[in-house]
Backbone:
């Protein structure tokens, strides 16, 4: 189960770790945490289990469903569309690098979690990127 910030709603998705149906209660504890409780298990057994759901305020709100395939491997960006512009940001929103669209290689050597903003002729998207050695 995950919270979709665009729709301000929960989405059960597939392969969810908590298999609760027919929820009896949900409460927002903070801007990034909720508690869900009660309902029925996957075999329609009544349950009183409680789950604490949370997401990171920056990376948790990034929509990972892109219109095309975009991924990063060994600091090289792959996309099945023409890329017009690529920017790399840290989690504080600071621009780290404007990536050359002819090479699509991330040149920063610092490891960590970043936000990659990609612009194609038809849309713009952002995705979380983990850079390691």
Residues:
């Amino acid at each position: 189960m995950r919270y979709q910030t665009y729709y301000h709603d929960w989405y059960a998705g597939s392969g969810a770790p908590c298999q609760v149906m027919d929820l009896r209660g949900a409460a927002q504890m903070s801007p990034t945490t909720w508690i869900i409780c009660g309902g029925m298990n996957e075999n329609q057994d009544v349950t009183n289990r409680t789950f604490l759901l949370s997401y990171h305020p920056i990376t948790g709100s990034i929509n990972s469903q892109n219109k095309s395939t975009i991924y990063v491997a060994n600091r090289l960006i792959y996309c099945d569309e023409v890329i017009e512009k690529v920017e790399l940001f840290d989690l504080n929103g600071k621009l780290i690098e404007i990536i050359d669209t002819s090479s699509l290689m991330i040149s920063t050597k610092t490891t960590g979690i970043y936000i990659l903003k990609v612009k194609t002729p038809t849309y713009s998207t952002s995705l979380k990127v983990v850079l390691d050695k």
About this structure: The first strand starts at residue 2 and ends at 4. The chain has a mean pLDDT of 77. DSSP finds no helices and eleven strands in the chain. The radius of gyration is 19 Å.
